[in-house]
Amino acid sequence: MKFVTAILRPHKLDDVREALSEVGVSGITVTEVKGFGRQKGHTELYRGAEYQVDFLPKIKLEVAISAAQLDSVIEAISSVASSGKVGDGKIFVSNLEKVVRIRTGETDQDAL
């Protein structure tokens, strides 16, 4: 089992959700986050004053999947979320040791 975390541009969320649904992902968790990488933020103008925005709005998407789905999930996310510009995001993959569905007590693969 794998746990995939992706940091994306907010406007790409709906497209990524649809792409994941097409490859068989049944559930995702989405969190609105702020951060920066190589973009290093940007400057904005507000009421005539220029100020630095260090943390940019991003979406953190998390999904627990079987190991067999990993390549198709990574391909679905990266193909839809990529614009070819700095700030497209990153995908992190971790091993998932145990999963328990609270309602039924099912574990591991059955709980996914």
Topology at a glance:
Elements: E1 2-8, H1 13-22, E2 29-35, E3 42-46, E4 49-53, E5 56-65, H2 70-81, E6 89-95
Antiparallel strand pairs: 1-5, 1-6, 2-5, 3-4
Output the keywords.
112 residues, alpha+beta, Alpha-Beta Plaits, two-stranded antiparallel ribbon, 6 strands, 20% helix, 37% strand
Low-confidence runs of at least 5 consecutive residues: none
State the share of residues found in helices, binned by percent: 10-25%
- Total number of domains: 1
CATH class designation: Alpha Beta
C-alpha-based Rg, rounded = 17 Å
Percent strand equals: 35-45%
Count the E strands: 6
Arrangement of strands in the largest sheet: 2-5-1-6
Mean pLDDT: 89
Number of helices: 2
CATH-defined topology: Alpha-Beta Plaits
| Strand and helix order | EHEEEEHE
Give your account of this protein's structure.
The protein has 2 helices and 6 strands, in the order βαββββαβ. With 112 residues, the protein is of the alpha+beta class. The protein has a single domain, classed as Alpha-Beta Plaits, CATH 3.30.70.120. The strands form 2 sheets. It has a 4-stranded antiparallel β-sheet with strand order 2-5-1-6, covered by helices on one side. The mean pLDDT is 89.
